What does this fold into?
Amino acid sequence: MLAKQPVSSPGYDWTVVALSFWFLGGLVLDGWAHNHIAELESFFTPWHAVFYSGFLAIAGFLMATLVRNHAKGYPWRSAMPPGYELAVLGVLIFVAGGVGDMIWHELFGIEANVEALLSPTHLTLALGATLFVSGPWRAGWRRPADEDEHKRGWVVLLPQLLSVTLLLSLWTFMTQFAHPLVEPWAAAGFRPRSQNFPYIRQSLGIVSILLQTGLLMGLVLLTAMRWLLPFGSLLLMFTLNALLMSFMQDHYRFIPAAALAGLGADLLIRWLKPSMERSGALRLFAFTVPVLNYVFYFAVLMLTQGVDWSIHLWTGSIVLAGVVGLLLSYLIIPPLTTSAFSVRM
It folds into this structure.
């Protein structure tokens, strides 16, 4: 009789980690090429070859596992080992993002500089990569704890540590415009991108969105999980904060945008009912609130002053704000484990 799901082995985790290194190594090489070789517009480059062959390798390995286990009698929905179900979804999202990226380029042109990192279709590719690169980390999280696990240390944890490091590296790559190892602003004589003023405006603008999203959603999620908030609570919070901040530079036109975002957040709480028991609803809430916040923000800019950023930048900033909120939700409610969560002192 078949088990509920097939079980992955440490060797399986190591294979996915190795293929993830191949994939992410190609991504970093491609980023290096774009930063060092002017007017690199061709798709057919050695760096793209490493990057996409890495994706094909990891996608082929995961899909072969799915098909093989289904042939053994497992239903499609439970044919992957625990922790790897979302990795298959990640492959599908990556493929969809690649198709969408070609369409996006036809409609809006090729991205440059920061645009290339924040294009919504490129963020879709990053989301897909997030799900399959983090597969070993999720698998280790869900694996039943062994009594001697803490004694073996590195032997047990190394695939998971490498997986989460690759996940971190993927998103530091996607936000390299605001990384002190890439742009050392404190260095004497530092000249960012040959004193490219548009690049500086874009980088600092995106950083401000991400920083303020982190502050806002950290407090919103903590408050919403602690109390049953009456309708209008977040409308009050968002509007009052915007009112106070508007005095700094007389930008009063953003107050209605903040009020609409707060109202939308209140409606989402009533509709989704996010809670510790409804983690899926919480994650959707955490992603959607900052998205609404900056949709209304950019709408006000368009209606009053105009937006100087390209469509790649302002739409990507909205999506990336949602990603920040989503990641914070995992601090509020970590993924489930198969054993009691404990902290060793």
Remarks:
- The chain has two domains: 10-174, 197-332.
